[in-house]
Design brief:
The chain is of the alpha/beta class and 340 residues long. It has two domains: 197 residues, Quinone Oxidoreductase, Chain A, domain 1 (Alpha-Beta Complex), CATH 3.90.180.10; 131 residues, Rossmann fold, CATH 3.40.50. Strands 3, 4, 5, 8, 9, 16 and 17 form a seven-stranded mixed sheet that branches. Helix 4 crosses helix 5 and helix 4 crosses helix 10. The longest helix has 14 residues. The mean pLDDT is 96.
Length: 340
């Protein structure tokens, strides 16, 4: 390891479920043969981080959250040949794969039987330095703002991948339920992909904002029958569910076009679904598990080329607790990002 690197650094450590996000001094470790060490520039704060720190992903404590980290490589493992010091890279949720299971053989690395997750099974990006497994590293153009790119490693790639992997022809109707961190990106990605976009929200106050993002139509799901309104437009080939409201999800099914798909991207728990409607329309419900390194690189490139912008609020690294509390209170517009 270079003599210019410090012997220790600051990292957020959560010692127990629902414990505080505490800054601690941690010894700096040299990367193993297949790892790289990065110096962090920015890291998004995601609801998954909050869920993990609350114990919803099991006993992973003590842990360092963070799976939307952007940084520059400062040390490279002996077996790593495709990356070098100075490269700007990202560490998303997908933190590593074995390369040998059936999913990996199909290039579905984010579904690996033995996958790792940054911020869960290995220390994440709420830290000044982070070790990343080289096979899962995302290459990031240096001309882009690290803070704006960071959320694309999770929210961005999730909506981008989820929509494109359904292989629906351009010109079809894509409805987006919710206009938060995921939803405001889903509207932009869908519009730039060539779809007719319908924004679904419970407040008329969101209509102007939705139209600015690129939505062609707006439906207030609290005052109108969302299914009937969508069918007046011809039915949605895809409905992207981004707000975790079980009752709201149930009401979406009737708005699907024949062969349409409800794409669930936000955990909503148990949901009642009208299977008669699913059968008569030959419709389906599916989820999507983020993406692997190349998926993230393509989501970032698409956003850069087509002007998809993640709206963020920046917090200094030492204000991590404020960033988390803001997220829990539903205040961000639209993603909180730690900057180093």
């Amino acid at each position: 390891m270079s003599s210019s690197l410090p012997k220790s650094y600051k990292a957020v450590v959560v010692d127990k479920a629902d414990g505080p996000y505490t800054l601690k001094t941690v010894d700096l470790k040299q990367p193993s043969a297949n790892e790289v060490l990065i110096k962090s520039l920015a890291c998004g704060v995601c609801f998954t981080d909050v869920g993990m720190a609350s114990g919803h992903f099991g006993d992973c404590f003590p842990c360092t959250p963070g799976h939307e980290v952007i940084g520059d490589i400062v040390s490279v493992g002996s077996n790593v040949t495709h990356l070098k010091n100075g490269d700007r890279v990202g560490g998303p949720w997908h933190g590593g794969h074995d390369g040998t299971c059936r999913q990996c053989q199909r290039s579905q690395f984010q579904l690996c039987d033995n996958q790792e997750a940054n911020g869960l099974s290995r220390p994440g990006g709420f830290a000044e330095y982070v070790l990343l497994r080289a096979e899962a590293v995302v290459r990031v153009p240096k001309e882009l703002d690290p803070a704006e790119v960071a959320p694309l490693l999770c929210a961005g790639v999730t909506v981008f991948n989820g929509i494109r992997k359904l292989h629906v022809e351009q010109g079809a109707i894509v409805a987006v339920q919710g206009l938060g961190g995921l939803g405001h990106l889903a509207v932009q990605y869908a519009k730039k992909m060539g779809y007719e976009v319908v924004a679904l929200s419970t407040s008329d106050d969101k209509e102007e904002f939705a139209k600015k993002l690129g939505a062609d139509h707006f439906i207030n799901t609290k005052t109108k029958d969302v299914g009937a309104e969508l069918m007046k437009l011809g039915g949605a080939s895809i409905i992207v569910q981004t707000a975790p409201n079980p009752k709201a999800v149930s009401n979406l099914i009737s708005g699907l076009a024949p062969l349409g798909t409800l794409l669930s991207l936000a955990p909503a728990g148990l949901v009642e679904l009208d299977t008669v409607t699913l059968l008569t329309k030959a419709a389906s419900v599916t989820g999507w598990a983020s993406g692997h390194a190349l998926d993230s690189e393509e989501a970032i490139k698409f956003a850069s080329v087509h002007g998809v912008k993640c709206m963020i609020e920046k917090y200094p690294f030492d204000k991590v607790q404020e960033a988390v509390d803001s997220l829990k209170a539903g205040k961000p517009r639209f993603r909180n990002v730690l900057v180093f």
